[in-house]
């Protein structure tokens, strides 16, 4: 997708920045190559390149003499360099007059998904008198915002995931009632077939985990490692997918069932806490969006996590509240996180993400996961919310 220079310059002006310095060395900064539209160029990139987009005026680049073709697709003058002295003087000329410059940098590496530029390069830019600030919110604007058509693909994927989830629980219910032996892996593989039938693509097969395996948030059964699903057990299903078309957006959901008539209080209480945390996060996003109030990812995590902590499950909630959704299941926008990282990026219109609190122990685990989309004055959940553990008796 071509780089929209006027749109970038409008964003820089709104953010009070003098420019955005894109930099890459041998693929170390995939954000820069994607934003610049160079990710799929197929060109050899063994040397450093820089591309500076000022808030006003013509962009300009600095590229090695033996790879000067790397920036040919971008507008503006490109100055070649060869030796390190030419590199130093070229970078100085590139940033002439710029005092506040965005780069793929995060202070103290608070957001590692953004922090792609090495410390030495940041030092070199600072030595030229420029303040380096994070490009985190700029990245969102040009990497994470969904078009109306993209949002439609998310809704379509979401509908199909919910159907597959219902089919999976129905199959488990049927096999438990009939006392037919079944395993996590068998249910997972049947779901893979339903993905194909629904026309969905995904990065990995869905997660089907029972009892103690559900206590591992990243467990996934394999042919070699899978347990039986028996009567009177908790089963967690987590599935994600998108339509197989350019620009399609992922959906990602998780639900929990119990292969018996009455859900034990231990499971029900843990799920109730996760559900309450989920709803507190949703309420915060909805109210802030209606009010036009700025909201940041870490605030959403705090709102959710506080509920689980009050319920006595804080130590068992061992991951962030949610992640960005996009063309990749973990997108390039803000994450709902003040636990694993401190994500101070804003929730901006046109972006989507998950809310997925869980409670994990050595004996079992529960999680409830929904997807949200934020527009100018409205935040929407894009599918049903689970209110209680499903009885699969």
Structure report:
Helix 6 (148-177) packs antiparallel against helix 7. With 393 residues, the chain is an alpha/beta fold. It is elongated, with a radius of gyration of 24 Å. The chain folds into 2 domains: 5-143, Creatinase/prolidase N-terminal domain (Creatine Amidinohydrolase, Chain A, domain 1, 3-Layer(aba) Sandwich), CATH 3.40.350.10; 145-391, Alpha-Beta Complex (Creatine Amidinohydrolase), CATH 3.90.230.10. The chain has helices spanning 5-15, 30-35, 84-94, 119-127, 136-144, 148-177, 184-198, 265-291, 297-310; strands at residues 19-24, 49-54, 60-64, 77-81, 100-103, 131-134, 207-210, 234-241, 251-258, 324-325, 351-355, 358-360, 365-367, 370-374, 379-381, 390-391. It contains 9 helices and 16 strands. The relative contact order is 0.12. Strand 5 (100-103), helix 4 (119-127) and strand 6 (131-134) form a beta-alpha-beta unit. Strands 4-3-2-1-5-6 form a 6-stranded mixed sheet. A 4-stranded mixed sheet has the order 7-8-9-16, covered by helices on one side. The model has no long low-confidence stretch (mean pLDDT 96). 34% of the residues lie in helices and 19% in strands.
Question: What's the SSE blueprint?
Answer:
Blueprint: H1 5-15, E1 19-24, H2 30-35, E2 49-54, E3 60-64, E4 77-81, H3 84-94, E5 100-103, H4 119-127, E6 131-134, H5 136-144, H6 148-177, H7 184-198, E7 207-210, E8 234-241, E9 251-258, H8 265-291, H9 297-310, E10 324-325, E11 351-355, E12 358-360, E13 365-367, E14 370-374, E15 379-381, E16 390-391
Parallel strand pairs: 1-5, 3-4, 5-6, 9-16
Antiparallel strand pairs: 1-2, 2-3, 7-8, 8-9, 10-11, 11-14, 12-13, 14-15
């Amino acid at each position: 997708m071509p780089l929209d220079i006027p749109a970038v310059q409008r964003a820089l002006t709104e953010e009070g920045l003098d420019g955005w310095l894109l930099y890459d060395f041998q693929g170390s900064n995939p954000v820069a190559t994607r934003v610049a539209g160079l990710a799929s160029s197929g060109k050899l990139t063994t040397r450093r390149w820089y591309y500076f987009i000022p808030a006003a005026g013509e962009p300009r680049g600095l590229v090695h003499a033996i790879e000067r073709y790397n920036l040919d697709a971008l507008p503006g003058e490109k100055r070649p360099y060869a030796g390190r002295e030419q590199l130093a003087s070229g970078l100085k000329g590139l940033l002439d007059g710029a005092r506040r410059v965005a780069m793929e940098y995060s202070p103290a590496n608070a957001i590692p998904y953004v922090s792609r530029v090495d410390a030495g390069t940041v030092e070199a830019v600072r030595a030229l008198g420029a303040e380096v600030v994070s490009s985190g919110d700029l990245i969102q604007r040009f990497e994470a915002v969904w078009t109306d058509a993209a949002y439609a693909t998310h809704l379509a994927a979401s509908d199909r995931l919910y159907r597959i989830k219902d089919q999976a629980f129905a199959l488990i219910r049927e096999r438990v009632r009939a006392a037919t032996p079944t395993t996590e892996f068998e249910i997972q593989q049947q779901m893979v077939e339903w993905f194909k039938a629904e026309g969905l693509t995904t990065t990995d097969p869905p997660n089907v985990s029972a009892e103690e395996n559900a206590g591992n948030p990243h467990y996934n059964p394999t042919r070699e490692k899978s347990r039986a699903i028996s009567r009177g057990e908790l089963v967690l299903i987590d599935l994600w997918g998108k339509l197989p078309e350019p620009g399609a957006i992922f959906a990602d959901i998780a639900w929990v069932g119990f292969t018996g008539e009455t859900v034990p209080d231990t499971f029900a209480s843990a799920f109730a806490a996760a559900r309450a945390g989920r709803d507190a996060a949703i309420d915060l996003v909805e109210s802030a969006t209606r009010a036009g109030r700025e909201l940041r990812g870490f605030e959403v995590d705090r709102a959710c996590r506080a509920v689980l902590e009050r319920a006595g499950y804080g130590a068992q909630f061992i991951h962030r509240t949610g992640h960005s959704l996009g063309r990749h299941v973990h997108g390039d926008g803000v994450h709902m996180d003040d636990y694993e990282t401190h994500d101070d990026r804003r929730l901006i219109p046109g972006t989507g993400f998950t809310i997925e609190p869980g409670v994990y122990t050595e004996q079992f685990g529960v999680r409830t996961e929904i997807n949200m989309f934020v527009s100018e004055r409205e935040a929407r959940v894009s599918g049903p919310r689970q209110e209680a553990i499903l009885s699969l008796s």
